[in-house]
Amino acid sequence: MQPTRAFVVVPSVPAKLAPLTELAFNLRWCWDNATIDLFRRLDSDLWEQTEHNPVAMLGRLSQEVLDAAANDESFLAHLDHVHRRHRRYMESGRRSKPEGADGPCVGYFSAEYGLTDCLRIYAGGLGMLAGDILKSASDLGVGLVGVGILYQEGYVRQYLNPEGWQQELYEENDFHSLPIQLERKPDGSPVLVSLPVAGAELTAQVWRAQVGRTPLYLLDANVSQNSPVQRALSGRLYAADPRVRLQQEALLAIGGMRALGELGVTPTVFHMNEGHSALLVLERIGKLMREVGVDFSTAREAVLASTVFTTHTCVSAAIDEYPAVLVEEVLGDWYGELGLTTERMMALGRYSSCDGEEPFSPALLALGFSAYRNGVSRLHGEVSRRLWQRAWPSVPAELVPITAITNGVHLRSWASHDMVELFDRYLGPAWAERDSDPGVWHGVQRIPAEELWRTHERRRERLVAFARRMLRAQLEARGASAADAALADEVLDPQALTIGFGRRFATYKRGALVLHDPERLEAILGDRQRPVQIIMAGKAHPQDGEGKAVIRTVVQHARSERFRRRVVFLEDYDMVVARYLVQGVDVWLNTPRRPLEASGTSGMKASVNGALNLSVIDGWWAEAYDPDLGWAIGRGEENEDPELQDRLEASTLYDVLEHEIVPLFYDRGPDGLPRRWITRMKNAMETICPRFNTTRLVQDYLREFYLPAAERWAELTRKDLAGAAELVEWKRKVACAWGAVRVRGHEILDEALSGRPTRVVIRVRLGRLRPEDVALTLLFGRLNAAGEIAATEAIPAAWSAHDGPGGHRYEAAIPPGDSGRYGFVVRVMPCHPLLADPYDLGLVAWG
Question: Alpha-carbon distance 500 to 611, whole Å?
Fold first, then answer.
């Protein structure tokens, strides 16, 4: 039954408690323990029941409780203290705004955001990263605005049937009880945007989640102006139907761009977190074409120079692709307004514009229209360069223009309350403001071993208590008898060595690797003198049957008599479960099949809480691993036989547990402290925390991408894009003349002696091009056994003289090095002061 009139009931908060509403609607509370303690003080049980949602909590508190708090001088003093700290935070630094003298405004687009427990618009690591980036941008005062989708049902909730198979359910979000607010016009009406999708106008309203100083704008298609089918487009995260997925990507990218315009927010730099928002580059181009009156090519130059693309993909099978008939059906009206035909549109997202059967890849579109591209760890940068090498056919894989900026985590969000108190005491109360400064983390060594260990033990005890409650609830939900449910209180040991594993259960993450040899594992876990236990959690995608089978295998082992007290699988892995795990385990286990883990961040979260990592050398651990900080499974081998790789690495895993981890953990002194273990905890925290956090990550993006992109945007858009038009004309000239460019030869002028530079002369033909139109570089390095340059160093060559008609002479000095076998190759590429991406033309001449 449809209502005659709809209205929203809001809590009747006494005037003295008015600041509670301000605090509740700013998600800064989710990483500020003082604010969380304030809300817990009102009703600790209700705080848990509302999934840590202060807005819902205020709406459900009885008037008696609110009135009592308004007359409690102690509570009012607490509220005043928290509110004043919040105001100081909000007013310090620079708030996010369209433009400012101290930095650019960045539009950050992501399909998911993991910010807090009650706002379920996330699925996994990509969303966790996006949420942590928003928080650190707020802490740093970086002018960043987030754009995403507000999903009515969000991602899947998980439960297990009696056989251990994952079952899914979806719960509707009540937006009016969440810490978000509807954006409204001055007349009070909602801010609406519309876009042509699938032959009809799609309308969306805009909600704002305020993340400290950083706004996150979320699009919601569930409005009365839309048809029932359209209203469902913002229903579920990562819909399985390709037609729905493509429409969601249009909503995110095109709708997100139009929402920023309606709100008066004008970023100069745009950052796409994966390819889901790739269509925004074409929406930006269309906007410039309409507003300035330039052609597609000229607008493209400005857009490309100010766009950042981060890829999280390791395998081609994970890349979204759409056939031409679907692209035309869903997007045809929109790209037709840009003057694009279906053939031209498809070509923008294909490796080969001549292959009419090749599908459209949004990720390829993003790569081709971004001057700044990165993977999310050094190893993933290498994987990405190989994966996308086809997009640059004239460039060797190692030189493909995709760099790497390694992920991090927002430390304050993931450190336990107890650990934060230790940091405040021994690192200084301002540690969180300088958490990427290695000098700050030297203070970890000043924490007394007894204090650090007792703090860690308290978190392990809380994890065990939480796991028991979760397991009891799981048993009761499956209809277990009271006696069977009571058995949950017998699992796990608060004093035992506890290993944690929390992951999306994709098959490459190998969630069951630790169970590869049950007999050997039973011997490790069942040692009464040195007990070991494992707590696991994770979801499989609803369409991933193989991932579900892995979960079933884990669950069946966990329910078996041999492992029932020592292996526990927790259902419905989410931010709450993840927080208990990373804050309470002794060892964080990660077993991906190398090199398929792009980065991984859970181990970083565990590190800030004193846990030690045991992982395959993949993703971020390939950079962080050191024997003094944790343990490696293997040496980074990659085996073509997956079964053999699993068998070898499972055996190595057991060896490390038996001979290194378990003995070290139970090596106790007379005071009962595992002092050598504690030393390793301190070393890991001191080394890992300042490197693998989102403060450093956002600063890297700002320095390497955002600031250069903003400068190029300013240069190219001056005088109605005169700079971009100049660049287009120069590109046309270079493209026409490039066929005459040749490397004629080179000459080494000096004998190559260790410790001395070696001069090289290179002769080239440039035809009608000038020396300033090209950049000549020697790619130099030591040769490996195959006679290839193993690691290249780029040495620029300088023009020295004309060398006959159309000929030019360049010189370079190879720096001194150790004795050995070296080589170089000559590379000539187009060069222009306004050219953001020299590979964009696809023109390279090799010597």
Answer: 9
Alpha carbon separation from 680 to 626, 658, 661, 674 (Å, rounded): 11, 18, 11, 10
CA 269 to chain centre: 18
pLDDT at 155: 86
Give pLDDT tens digits for 226-251.
999 999 999 999 988 999 999 999 99
| Residue 632 token pair | 């490696």
Fold match, 108-404 / 441-692: yes
The amino acid that residue 305 corresponds to is A
Whether omega before 627 lies within 30 degrees of 0, making that bond cis, reads: no
Give the angle 113-118-124 at the CA atoms, nearest 5°: 35
User: What does pTM read for this prediction?
Assistant: 0.95
CATH C-level class of 741-846: mainly beta
Buried b (16+ CB within 10 A) or exposed e, 276-293: bbbbbbbbbbbebbeeee
Asked whether 384 and 595 are in contact (CB, 8 A), the reply is no
Annotated domain spans of the chain: 15-91, 108-404, 441-692, 741-846
CATH class of 108-404: alpha beta
* CATH code for residues 441-692: 3.40.50.2000
| pLDDT tens per residue, range 311-339 | 999 988 889 999 999 999 999 999 999 99
Region of residue 97 (left: phi > 0; alpha: psi -120 to 50; beta: else): beta
